[in-house]
Predict the 3D structure of the following.
Amino acid sequence: MSELKRTLFYERHVAAGATMVDFGGWEMPIQYPGGIVEEHLATRSGCGLFDVSHMGRFRITGKGAKAFLQHVLTSNVSALEVDQAQYAIIPNENGGAIDDAYLYRFVEDAYILVVNAANAEKDWAHLTREIKAFDAQMENKSEAVALLSVQGPKSKEILSDMANGAFLTEPVKNALGTVKLCGKSAHIAKTGYTGEPVGYEIFALREDGLFLWDELVKRGAKPIGLGARDTLRMEAALPLYGHELGQDKDGNEIPVFAISLARFAVSFAEEKKGMIGRAPLEAQFAASSRILNRDFSDLGVLPRRIRPIALTGRGVLRAGFPVFKDGKEIGYVTSGTMIPRYVVERQGSLLETFTDQRAMRSIGLALLDSDVLTDDAVEVDIRGSRISAVVPAWHLRSDAPPYARPIVVDAPEEPEQAPSGNLPLSALNLLNKAAENHIWRQEQCVNLIPSEMTASRAVRLLSGSDPSFRYAEHKKTASFYDNEVFYYQGTKFIDEVERALVAELRRYFGCTEVEARVISGQMSNTTVFSALMDYKNRLNRKQTPQRLGYILNNHIIKGGHLSAQPMGALHDYVAVDPATERPAVVNFPVLRENLFKIDVEETKKVIERYRPEFIIFGKSMVLHKEPVCEIRAFVDEQKIPTTIMYDMAHVLGLVGPHFQQPFAEGAEIVTGSTHKTFFGPQRGVIAVNYQEDELKYDLWKTIQTRAFPGAVSNHHLGTLLGLLMAAYEMNEFGDVYQKNVVANAKSFARSLKAAGLDVAGDPAIGYTETHQVIVKTGYGTGPEIAERLEENNVVVNYQATPEEEGFTASGALRLGVSEMTRFGFGPKEFETLANLMADCILRGKPIAQEVCKLRAGYTKLLYCFDDAETNAALETLAAKSGI
Amino acid sequence: MNLLNDRKYTQSHEWLLDLGNGTYRIGLSDFAQHSLGDIVFIDLPKAGDAVTAESSLGDVESVKAVSEVLSPVSGKVSAVNEALASAPESINADPYGAWLIEVTGVFATAELMDADAYKAFCEHA
């Protein structure tokens, strides 16, 4: 046997007492003295440190680098931007895998391909052969670059500390960054092989490797051997070459599409015409699509697929064990063992936490007949005994960061509550509970949800009055000189109301046209998106309509509104870019020093590159004005044909000189919901500023038809009355209200800061220019603190900052001052509240009583008509409508 | 490596303790638990089963691998340490306390070593 190779970290492993083994020709630690179980749990609950310097690192450069990679990898390298990584398979001519790999692009003109240690020589030989046909070079950097991996919920904290708090990477999987860790330059990648939603791989110079290892250990990263690396990846159902990829136990090639990751990792984009193994991979893709559609008529090219398997009987799954279903052998276990987990408290809820108690489960992966369905019961032959098992959808979920959460097959289900059957009693209960809730929300607790507002008594009464049971569909009709024609009788009053509302809102926005029939902000957006798509296709109706693209918007992590995301209201209207095979959406770049603010200069570059046909401003986590003016000037100057919309959902009630005047600044369309900072009941609105003689006035006409009959038929007429009253209130009192909201927000932010809380944003402008204040509470603590505040009568929402992975990892609170401003809170009251909240957040002090007392003095809603005549009319309406 | 002088050891790393009333206790040595690593599962015979010297009496599994446990004696199982089923890791924590089975009616034994001989055997292993 040739001598085993050792990584740079060999001495560290030996010094730590690791058991060293031969792994693919490398002398590597299988485990440290604590053992595999300890190491597995340390990673899931803290931070595991892995020496992955045995893996192959190849650097590919040159003009033909991308073309070469498109040829030898299955992934779409055109979709890989700078500072991104992607998973790929190195395919052979038969549609099997030579290896699986990760491709990193830290800089514009070089790619790093990381391959399995045991396959590195084989991969190098293959790639060296293939690169000859391309104008590209490949260098083996395996020696020169130290490669480490830190994985687990605490890994971010540890790296942030080493980076002195500098920005690491975007908080999404596969994002890359270049930082200084304790003064040493390193590339870092938000990637890993553990299923951890938070974990990084670190590429550093060889000479800095040991120093970084020691610094990581000093900060609590725990060295993890190959044993736990295997159990972690198995729990995450990640394939390991030689088990789930390569050859099966009979020496036959495992098709690439046997692993479910292939559906993401294999691209058939135009640029990949020459990909090695393309034809068999296409056949596998077709087979895989049939199978996922439960068409099992032809399993020829994909007879078996890799599935998770969990033992429900006693024993331990091991690679090689045959699997049976209904007595018939259907495959075998490719990887299996016994895996530990921490038992959790409050399982299945956002407040789930680990206990000290451990549990073990035997799980693994299996190559099973392709017609096996998720949750099928199977049996595993364990040394002659048939032991029951199941094929679950997954063993672990990573979609609720910062923790990877084990999913056990026998988790108890919450029993469904059966209806009591006593309907009079149920009705009574509902009434009593609603009254209780009303008192709590309106008199005892402080509401700081920025997207909520209490409506005036007038708005509430009107919203419940008679038109709320009626229909009033109407349509502009050209034959009648574009007059609105109503379909039903009894609609004259509502016609009058709608006209008055439109006139009032035009005045509010300072625009030409308003559509008020949409009943939510989300519907306002889908209506506009649908209209834009229709408008785009209006000149050729004989083909399937083309979707919109490119679209420029705010990324949801940077505060973008859900209603303007591809996963939200844009879903059915955005094209897929065939080059990247992703939705044709790009995001506003933000300032490095203030992630809450759009970077105008960088945005201009993005606009030049993508020439977006549609630009959507607006956010739901919003501290700043949007640069509408600057971007309008730029697209006009560059003659870029586009449509600029401002989704003002959260700031609709702030339109004016104290915040922004979107149409004066150059927006063409404004959408929003009427019940956040605005005074209305829950509806939506669309406003445009097209003149009748403009070409784009046709887009306005399309917006109207997409509203009715496109989006609504009945549109909740009661609330239309309510909204008209709200518009009157806003046009009468809005100026003072808006001024006070912005002043209160700045003042609240300062008070929170003075009380010792970490307030996000730029202190130079008073942290905020809107009604919102963002308070950072510490990574992942948002949900727990928000719950604690609710128990103490302060209602807020937990919020992920632009550096965090998503709502479950939220380390902030989003606070809005608009509703309490309307109840009469001023700087003094917000200061009192800030101090109470600091007591509760920082010191866990109960504040419920004090909050209740504070609120009790402010239960009368302001900024609404309150004269004797109005009040008398309200009483009459209440009496007559019986509300 | 921890060794106790009150018992005998086999080449396959089991221990045998004479309880003095015709009953023998069987367990795994410290050396065995250490080389196995985290023990996560154990499969033992039932009381009343026969065991045969140098033949498998059951399996012990760690995260890494499965190993057979060879019986140091031939006889009949009189008791099984049921606590191990739910806490197999106690073998790692206390290999000489966490016994596997007790056997009576012993009529044959495997080759056994005392602590010193076993220590020497392990060092050469």
User: Anything to note?
Assistant: The radius of gyration of chain A is 31 Å. DSSP finds 23 helices and 40 strands in chain A. The longest strand of chain A covers residues 328-345.
